[in-house]
Amino acid sequence: MTDSTPTLTDGYARQLTYLRLSVTDVCNFRCNYCLPDGYLADNNCNNFLSLEEIHKISQAFALCGTKKIRITGGEPLLRKDLPQIIERCKSVEGIDTLALTTNAYSISKHLPKLVDAGLDQINISADSLQPENFQLITGHNKLDEVLSGLDMALERGLKKVKLNVVLMREYNRSELSDFLDFVRQRPIVLRFIELMETGDNKAFFKKQHVSGQEIRDELEQDGWLQVLREAHAGPALEFSHPDYAGNVGLIMPYSRNFCTNCNRLRVSSRGNLHLCLFGEEHHSLRPYILEESPQQLAKRIQHLVSFKKAEHGLHENNPGTTRHLAMLGG
Ligand code: SAM
Ligand code: SF4
């Protein structure tokens, strides 16, 4: 794409240059806030977007000015064709950043191929640095493997490595200083994410939700300073400290004005366009993906974006139709 490529802009003047693309709903973990009973297959459980469909969607979004695609899931590493997916998306003119969000189960085995395919950034999820606690949260005794995958990503020179941590009152609130120690020598972004309410986790949410403001207050008391981020960089806040190689990010969807800086759209692994993570409706692109040209599909997306709402309804305890984030990739 050229500098004259139009940017997808919604009715609130937000520029939507970032696509989160889910490639599967299936997951091998049982995170207590997401899929506590594990992934339950439905009749449609293999009907995920094909490599061809993913390629076409990437082309259409790039024509709309999308620059960054994040592959997510479910667990994207469970797709055997993940290296090909990354290669195809990255080959699309206009897409300059290809990122992956993963639970990093057996990542060391996969990472070299993913990097060769063009992966630029990786977000690895680990909500505790204590092996027993990690197992309690995810159902798997895999913390060592996940953390060595993170170090391997750093060694391989990925442009950005992030560690995603969902804040939970009883499971990791007391681990703040351990997490900060973890980034003392590692040039990564440690991102604390406020636990979000979904259709399936209401009781858990009530008991476990922690406001990111608590973390922010502690960081600021310890001399962490907010980093100025580029315009359209998205809703996360970021902090740095001279004694630490890593930065700390805060994702606080319950804070005021969180949605003002929204820069993203989502496509589910079934080919549905979601204008918001917690919307009431979605728009099926599936019937058109292989039938239409990337240009026609781009026009369709441009039209649908005008329906994007100003903000989500989480403050009113309304997660829309989202039962859990494995449906959409977070
Ligand atoms: N399976 C991959 C993983 O866990 O990284 C990708 C999909 S997962 C849905 C994406 C991110 O959403 C993870 O960092 C996960 O911890 C986070 N997440 C899932 N459910 C959440 C919730 N209810 N509130 C906040 N974050 C959540
Ligand atoms: Fe799976 Fe990710 Fe959900 Fe955990 S958060 S159950 S790893 S999809």
Structural description of this entry:
This protein is α/β, with parallel strands linked by helices and 330 residues long. It is built from ten helices and twelve strands. It has a single domain, classed as Aldolase class I (TIM Barrel). 29% of the residues lie in helices and 17% in strands. It has a twelve-stranded mixed sheet with strand order 7-8-9-6-5-4-3-2-1-10-11-12. β2 (68-72), α2 and β3 form a beta-alpha-beta unit. α2 packs parallel to α3. The two termini are 28 Å apart. The mean pLDDT is 94. The structure holds S-adenosylmethionine (SAM) and iron/sulfur cluster (SF4). The site of S-adenosylmethionine has 21 residues, from β3 and β5. Iron/sulfur cluster binds at residues 27, 29, 31, 34-35, 73-75, 103, 125, 326.
CATH topology grouping: TIM Barrel
Number of helices: 10
Report mean pLDDT, rounded to a whole number. Answer: 94
Question: Which blocks of ≥5 consecutive residues have pLDDT under 50?
Answer: none
Through-space gap between termini: 28 Å
The H-level CATH homologous superfamily, spelled out, is Aldolase class I
Q: What bound compounds does this protein have? A: S-adenosylmethionine, iron/sulfur cluster
The succession of helices and strands, N to C, reads EHEHEHEHHEHEHHEEEEEEHH
Number of discrete domains: 1
- Using the 3D structure, state the CATH architecture: Alpha-Beta Barrel
Count of distinct strands: 12
Structural class: alpha/beta
* Largest pleated sheet: 12 strands, mixed
